[in-house]
Specification:
The complex is a heterodimer of chains A (140) and B (151). Chain A is an alpha+beta fold and 140 residues long. Chain A has a domain of 91 residues: Hotdog Thioesterase (Thiol Ester Dehydrase, Chain A, Roll). In chain A, 23% of the residues lie in helices and 36% in strands. The longest helix of chain A has 16 residues. The model of chain B has no long low-confidence stretch (mean pLDDT 95). With 151 residues, chain B is an alpha+beta fold. Chain B is built from four helices and five strands, in the order αβαααββββ.
Chain lengths: 140, 151
């Protein structure tokens, strides 16, 4: 893998965020928050989101992990820091994207520090953060 | 808008240092399967657990729950919590059917004001996940905003 700062990471697409997956996730997480499974609860908020459930933060984050795994391998992730400027709603088509911000070595392991984000065509950046990724030939 | 009174700032500040009981968590294959399916990915090889587990494994493993974390900060409702950030460090991949020991607590708690002048409480939770050999496998930090009279 020949990489340089500024390179783009191949995008990862979630064609349609699934409300059924949010329900499964709520059960696994033991998450009582109705925003993830009750469209009426979301509609009642003064946020103008309508009758759509809100994706769990970790699920949105996982799309970026999937992008990094597809790019650098299933054991590549060393650190991920994520902020959540906007919610992700059921039915949305979202795209995980990223670029390399720095290349370095730590304990003889080559790492890429990346800017990553989750994007919606109309609403822009929904999630944004950074990740440190071990490059493929150096993974455990 | 909630009619719940805003908790005293001193009650929020004294949450810093609170420790959860701690405990153990094992990710079963069925759980990893469903969890990974929710992310839209294929199962990872060799029993590796999808890193998305780093949200709930530390919480449940430390013998707390999302509901208790909401209650500790005197959340007005489940709907009033906003995520500031999640920070997950992975020192080694987590695997199915491995009994991880988890400890965690509240590392900071402070009252803040947003750009619109609305009060919120910023509470940060930190967890550590250890292998059966007592090696640190992962460290996570959850930072939530407990909004007050915003919704």
């Amino acid at each position: 893998m020949s990489l340089k700062v500024g390179d783009s990471i191949p995008q990862w697409v979630m064609p349609s965020v699934s409300p059924e997956r949010m329900r499964t996730m709520a059960a696994i997480l033991r998450d009582p928050n109705p925003l993830h499974w009750d469209r009426n609860a979301v509609d009642a908020l003064p946020l103008g989101l309508g009758k759509r459930t809100i994706n769990q933060g970790p699920l949105g984050l996982s799309y970026m992990i999937n992008m990094l795994h597809a790019w650098a391998g299933p054991n590549c992730l060393r650190r991920i820091v994520m902020r959540f400027p906007q919610v992700v709603l059921d039915g949305e088509h979202v795209i995980a994207r990223g670029t390399i911000r720095a290349l370095r070595e730590e304990d003889s392991v080559p790492l890429a520090d990346c800017d990553i984000w989750l994007e919606h065509e109309d609403r822009g950046v929904l999630l944004e953060g950074t990740a440190s990724v071990a490059l493929p030939d150096q993974q455990n | 808008m909630s009619s719940k009174p805003i908790p005293a700032e001193t009650d929020i500040m004294r949450l810093a240092g609170h420790q959860f009981p701690g405990g153990f968590y094992t990710v079963a294959h069925w759980e990893n399967y469903l969890l990974t399916e929710c992310t839209g990915a294929e199962l990872l090889p060799n029993g590796m657990v999808h890193p998305v587990v780093l949200f709930h494994l530390p919480i449940i493993g430390a013998d707390t729950s999302i509901a208790e974390m909401f209650a500790l900060g005197q959340a007005e409702s489940d709907l009033s919590i906003m995520i500031e950030s999640y920070d997950w460090e992975i020192l080694q991949p987590l695997r199915e059917e491995t009994r991880y020991r988890v400890n965690g607590g509240i590392s900071s708690a402070e009252r803040c004001k947003n750009a619109q002048g609305k009060l919120y409480d910023r509470i940060q939770f930190c967890f550590e996940v250890h292998t059966p050999e007592e090696t640190l496998a992962a460290r996570t930090t959850i930072t939530w905003h407990y909004t007050r009279h915003t919704l």
